[in-house]
Write a structure and sequence with these properties.
Elements: E1 2-3, H1 6-10, H2 13-23, H3 35-42, H4 47-54, H5 60-64, E2 72-77, E3 83-88, E4 92-97, E5 100-106, E6 110-111, E7 114-115, H6 116-123, H7 128-131, E8 138-139, H8 145-158, H9 163-177
Parallel strand pairs: 1-2, 7-8
Antiparallel strand pairs: 2-3, 3-4, 4-5, 5-6
Helix pairs in contact: 2-3, 8-9
């Protein structure tokens, strides 16, 4: 496992553009655009940087279905002595809480969703910039949408996304996470 220094990534537009475009694959805007399509219109994805993050090689998809043996990995301490691990593979982003795999997004898509109350509990002590890292595995019920919008919009502003698109991105994330 190769640990990524999270503070370097939190302030990196390349990381957030890649993460948002990959981690919320099923959310759609009012204009039937995916989050990656919207981000592509505004920000240029740096494929060389993404390839370095995911350890992509030209034959990785055929030789190992897009998974690397020692992926780059973020580790975030959550509340209640739990840890979130996020692995970055060429084909998927894989999420763990402690040692339990809770899902993956990318070419495969399977999530064991946690509810909004659990999300708030786990992220209680996290800086706002980190909270969005757990959102792809969160289920947002209708009665939590207003609170979710506040937290997601605040997170997007903290990671320096333009105010003009924050609400659109927020709506797509909520659409992706709706129960």
């Amino acid at each position: 496992m190769n640990k990524i220094k999270i503070l370097e990534e939190i302030n990196n537009r390349k990381f957030w553009t890649y993460f948002l475009g990959t981690a919320f694959p099923v959310g759609i805007s009012e204009n039937d655009e995916s989050l990656s399509e919207i981000l592509d219109e505004i920000y240029v994805l740096d494929s060389e940087w993404i390839n370095a993050l995911t350890d992509y090689t030209p034959n990785i998809l055929t030789s190992s279905d897009g998974y690397v043996e020692h992926p780059n990995k973020l580790e975030i301490k959550l509340h209640l002595n739990e840890k979130l691990y996020i692995e970055f593979h060429p084909a998927d982003i894989i999420y763990y809480i402690n040692d339990k795999k809770i899902g993956y997004v990318g070419t495969q898509y399977q999530l064991e969703l946690i509810d909004w109350t659990r999300f708030e509990e786990l992220t209680e002590a996290l800086p706002d910039e980190y909270k969005g890292l757990l959102l792809p595995v969160v289920k947002i019920e209708n009665d939590n949408i207003d609170n979710a919008k506040k937290i997601i919009t605040n997170w997007l502003q903290k990671i320096s996304f333009q105010d003009e698109i924050c609400m659109n991105i927020c709506d797509i994330i909520i659409d992706n996470c709706r129960a």
